[in-house]
């Protein structure tokens, strides 16, 4: 079985708020725009495609901020800082997404996983150290 990869984008607006999406499945949790890679697709291409599919934005990838290994799913998650044209407004453009919005870092919506919070914190930390992480079992913040 091929190794799974996923990729997500950290997109911020002029106020420093981060774009999050609310899923229509599972715990209906808030998450970064992103998803699983497809065959013959790089992690960067995955992040760009997923953002376009989920919130209708064409983004540029600026920087890799972390690689997270999830042993429960034997999967690597790549996280990138991405930029979008500020005149473009995100909108739910997939049945998977029921809502999307820019959120203040001190008032992130719930439910949200600690994994999502960690990726945001790591990406926006200018003094971040290593960019490879192993995920511990998720805890839900509700």
Automatic annotation (TrEMBL):
Gene3D superfamilies: Nucleoside Triphosphate Pyrophosphohydrolase
Domain of life: Bacteria
Protein name per the record: NUDIX domain-containing protein
Keyword Cytoplasm: no
Keyword list, A-Z: Hydrolase
Record-stated family: Belongs to the Nudix hydrolase family.
Cofactor(s) needed by this chain: Mg(2+)
Pfam family, one: NUDIX
Keyword Ubl conjugation assigned: no
Alphabetical list of InterPro entries matching this protein: Nudix_hydrolase, NUDIX_hydrolase-like_dom_sf, NUDIX_hydrolase_CS, NUDIX_hydrolase_dom
One GO MF term: hydrolase activity
Domain Nudix hydrolase as annotated: residue spans: 2-125
CDD domains: NUDIX_Hydrolase
PANTHER family: 8-OXO-DGTP DIPHOSPHATASE-RELATED (PTHR43046:SF2), GDP-MANNOSE MANNOSYL HYDROLASE (PTHR43046)
């Amino acid at each position: 079985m091929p190794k799974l990869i996923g990729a997500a984008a950290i997109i911020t607006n002029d106020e420093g708020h981060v774009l999050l999406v609310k899923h229509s499945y599972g715990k209906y949790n808030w998450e970064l725009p992103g998803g699983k890679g497809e065959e013959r697709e790089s992690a960067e291409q995955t992040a760009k495609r997923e953002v376009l599919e989920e919130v209708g934005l064409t983004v540029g990838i600026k920087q890799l901020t972390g690689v997270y290994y999830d042993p429960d799913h034997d999967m690597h998650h790549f996280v990138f800082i991405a930029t979008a044209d500020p005149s473009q407004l995100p909108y739910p453009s997939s049945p998977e997404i029921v809502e999307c919005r820019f959120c203040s870092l001190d008032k992130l919506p719930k439910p949200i996983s600690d994994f999502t919070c960690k990726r945001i914190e790591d990406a926006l930390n200018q003094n971040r150290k290593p960019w490879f992480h192993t995920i511990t079992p998720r805890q839900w913040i509700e």
